[in-house]
Design a protein that fits this description.
7 strands, globular, mainly beta, 4-stranded mixed sheet, single chain, 3-stranded antiparallel sheet
């Protein structure tokens, strides 16, 4: 599995073939391997990237068939906005300094602002 080029170009997304992780479709058991990881900004923890849309062959209008990491390693979906960190080690959408898209006029995260 390889995420799209927009994801692989992010600073915190790394190709690490030595750490590859096997994943399996939660519905049919189809297996894939991911060598792409998110390096968390503060803890430096690695999280294996998995396709956000799951296994498309098993997907229906009622459910997604997510890929499960076989060894139980931490994982994250390949959603751009969740993987995009600024130079302040914060998700870019939530950074007050960078003027993130999820920051309100009161310079707080919209979902946490009591005034908005």
């Amino acid at each position: 599995y390889t995420p799209n080029p927009r994801i692989t170009a992010l600073d915190r997304v790394k190709y690490r073939p030595q750490d590859e992780k096997a994943m399996q479709c939660s519905h049919c058991g189809f297996k894939i391997v991911s060598r792409w990881f998110l390096v968390l900004a503060r803890s430096r923890e690695l999280r294996v990237l998995r396709p956000h849309n799951g296994h498309t062959a098993c997907r229906t209008s009622e459910r997604k068939a997510h890929f499960v990491v076989l060894d139980g390693s931490p994982h994250t979906s390949d959603v751009y906005v969740s993987l995009d960190y600024c130079q302040h080690a914060v998700q870019r959408k939530d950074c007050n300094i960078c003027g993130g898209s999820a920051v309100c006029v009161h310079r707080k995260r919209r979902r946490e602002c009591r005034l908005c």
